[in-house]
Write a structure and sequence with these properties.
By secondary structure, this protein is an alpha/beta fold. Helix content is 37%, strand content 17%. The chain contains twelve helices and ten strands. The strands form three sheets. A five-stranded mixed β-sheet has the order 2-1-3-10-4. A three-stranded antiparallel β-sheet has the order 8-5-9. Strand 6, helix 4 and strand 7 form a beta-alpha-beta unit. The chain is globular, with a radius of gyration of 18 Å. The two termini are 23 Å apart.
Length: 293
């Protein structure tokens, strides 16, 4: 058995149901793999000695800039499911309305390059935002208390807020600017595992492809099957609503999971070069070459 370790971009949630299904139904084991899946809340991408790490394309490129040997090998969804959420009472319906409001942010430079572009392209002044450095774990306790708005994944934080009876405003960043329909959440592999265990990587991605197709076909049944691995305070109704939201964007037009669309990747990578977050484009930033034909 080949041993592999995966670090998720957050605690296990409906973005990761394919990983959990592949583990529970034995697809990894059938592929000769022993897979350890580890997830926690974190705003900066770190490998923690793992073979695979999940996160946004932007963070992967920033890691490459710092000399960390990573290559993007899969994307969770074929549309970036992220944007800015706020309580309705805050009156934030578009990027420029973030002026004067408290927005949580992560430390990396790419966050500011991304959000400043969105705000300023909408006629706003990024310098007028009140930035709160916080890696949000509890969105309900955050909005209206320590911050007015947060960059989130729609599948989870929005559903948690709705479950808590909150009225919200939300705009998807990719709908505002196509650059932000980038590859997120996605997964990168270490150069070490690609070099030393290429066949194990292929089998791993093949098992995930199989599992995510099944999640897309049966979102309710699959998410309830692995609900033991999901946050204990999430209701079945929240999980089902979230999984049904994601099901239509898991697969590409050919019904396959995980393949990275070069247009989505390249638009964001070129933007990050243009604004100086990364110095240049690199070979092997991403590949679809480890998926089965």
């Amino acid at each position: 058995m080949d041993k592999l370790k995966v670090v998720l971009d957050w605690f296990p949630n409906t973005n990761h149901t394919g990983f959990l299904i592949a583990q529970k139904r034995g697809y990894f084991a059938e592929a000769g793999l022993e897979v350890e899946i580890f997830g926690e809340v974190h705003g900066e991408m770190e490998l923690h000695g793992a073979d695979f790490v999940c996160g946004p394309e932007i963070a992967m490129l920033e890691c490459m800039e710092r000399g960390i040997g990573l290559t993007g090998v899969a994307v969770m969804t074929q549309k970036c499911d992220s944007g800015i959420v706020s309580l309705k009472e805050a009156g934030i319906t578009r990027p420029r309305e973030l002026e004067g409001k408290r927005l949580t942010h992560w430390t990396p430079e790419w966050f500011h390059a991304a959000i400043s572009r969105v705000v300023e392209n909408d006629g706003g002044d990024y310098g007028k935002l009140k930035l709160v450095n916080l890696d949000v774990g509890d969105i309900v306790a955050t909005l209206g208390e320590v911050a007015d708005a947060t960059w989130v994944y729609e599948n989870w934080e929005n559903q948690v807020l709705i479950e808590a009876g909150k009225e919200i405003n939300y705009f998807n960043l990719g709908d505002v600017d196509p650059v932000f329909d980038f590859c997120a959440p996605a997964m990168a592999a270490s150069h070490e595992v690609l070099r030393n265990k290429p066949e194990a990587v292929r089998r791993f991605l093949g098992a995930l492809d199989r599992a995510y197709r099944e999640v897309a076909a049966d979102p309710e049944g699959t998410v309830l099957e692995v609900r033991e691995f999901m946050p204990a305070d999430a209701s079945d109704e929240l999980l089902i609503r979230s999984q049904k939201h994601l099901a239509p964007i898991f697969l590409d037009d050919c019904g396959r999971w995980g393949r990275i669309d070069p247009l989505r990747w390249n638009r964001m990578a070129d933007f990050l070069v243009d604004v100086g977050v990364i110095s240049c484009r690199r070979e092997n930033e991403f590949t679809n070459g480890y998926f089965p034909e």
